[in-house]
Amino acid sequence: MYGKVMSACLQGIEGQVIEVESDISSGLPQINLVGLPDSAVRESVERVRSAIKNCGFTFPLDRITVNLAPADLRKEGSSFDLAIALGILLTTGQLPADIVERTLFIGELALDGALRPVPGVLSMVHAAKQAGMRRICLPEANAAEAALIEGVNVYALAKLADFKNWNGMEETSFLFKARVDDPSSTAPAADTRSLYNDNYSDVSGQHQVKRALMIAAAGMHNILLIGPPGTGKTMLVKRMPTILPPMYDREALEVTKIYSASGKLPDRSSLMRKRPFRAPHHTISAAGLAGGGSIPKPGEVSLAHRGILFLDELPEFTRSALEVLRQPLEERCVTIARARAVYTFPSQFILAAAMNPCPCGFFGEDSDKHVCTCSPQKIIHYRSRISGPLLDRIDLHVEVPKPSYAQLHERNLHQSSEEMLEQVLRAHATQQVRYADTGIRYNNELSGKLLRRFCALTAEGEQLLNASFDALGLSARAHDRILRLALTIADLDQCTQIEPQHVAEAIQYRNLDKKQSPHVSI
């Protein structure tokens, strides 16, 4: 006797449709599970056996072979429990065969037959839809998440015994109905400003820093804030999500799939609308930052996809952890190779970092009460914890000065997040029109031919950049980043070409490129 049921599992953060084949023949009572299952899948045998018995079905006392195809793909997780149980019940004739027609079955079984939720359902259902399936049966707790994918019928079940009352796929008592987002839409999502309590209007002074953060948001550029303790570096960065535009539905689907696969989805009933803001502690390992493990899972760089990765006290992170940032910053993805598979996780984010100018934090302070006690060698060693190649990948290096008493108590209105966001949205609209036929969306993605095509300088701007290239000892990568920054500044100023003042402002944000001794203030 032979039967086949469709199920799914995760490969990285993407879903993979799996055929669960069951064969029952005469022989000693045993179950053989084949098809490269991991330990969690192998343990499903006992869960399935108990669930079938405790739901009033009969478990066959025969030789049972269950194959998970394709057989050369390693299977992980507990999402196959329901499919394995149904395969046995269908093969033994205890359930009608029409139950499994063009239907995907996902779910973990408890010993009493209850269906428990599994992570990564959004990716699995998306893969099933692409494979032509239109019906999904899964646990009630996963139903709202599965319904986010448009064009599939979701059937929510509480326990394996529910199939005894199944009257065909039109059975409305199990059909889950919910509002469905369209993840294929390219229209921007609803305004998300009401989701934030913080606002840049709360920040006194620091107008130049707020300008730099607005430039970073307008072009999705990486930014590093450098200043003594207490100047508001962390506070300024934490308000940055308030000036980022809402995610498009397609972007929201990408982010939600990552959090679903990681088991970190805060709300299963809707796509994530707030751009992620991840702020790992400086003791994080390289694997925790980039992702990894025996079964690779997304790290912080992927959890920050389409949002912000904030690294406070940047030099305190280990060198190995910082160096793994190179690939995601350059290629916008992380590739993790294992013996049996290669996993690729998306990681397109804004890197926002903060650091002190020296170990004690007061280098360059013009104050009698705060005098730097660090030797030049100590300062050089402190800054050398951040490698040149990593600094090259950070577009803006911004000094955050200590605000004066007058600035803290100035009565004039401060620029609000709403005003800054309005300028950012205008710049983004300009970029959408400019890159309509290129496959990119923001200025920070420009490279190669596209960089030369869209970053044409005036003669004066070319002359200024040429002089700065030799004076600052810029690398080729830093040169390109200055061009991208200048283009973003021009977009904010609503200029159609890059003027010398745009180049000059972009150059001033490359403070750490200067060939200077540690005695020179940054």
UniProtKB/TrEMBL annotation:
Keywords for the protein's UniProt record, in alphabetical order: ATP-binding, Nucleotide-binding
Domain AAA+ ATPase: start-end pairs: 219-404
Keyword Transcription set for record: no
InterPro entries xref list: AAA+_ATPase, CHLI-like, MCM_dom, Mg_chelat-rel, Mg_chelat-rel_C, Mg_chelatse_chII-like_cat_dom, P-loop_NTPase, Ribosomal_Su5_D2-typ_SF
Pfam families linked to this entry: ChlI, Mg_chelatase, Mg_chelatase_C
SMART domains, per the entry: AAA
Keyword ATP-binding: yes
Family: Belongs to the Mg-chelatase subunits D/I family. ComM subfamily.
Name of the protein in question: YifB family Mg chelatase-like AAA ATPase
Organism of provenance: Paenibacillus aestuarii
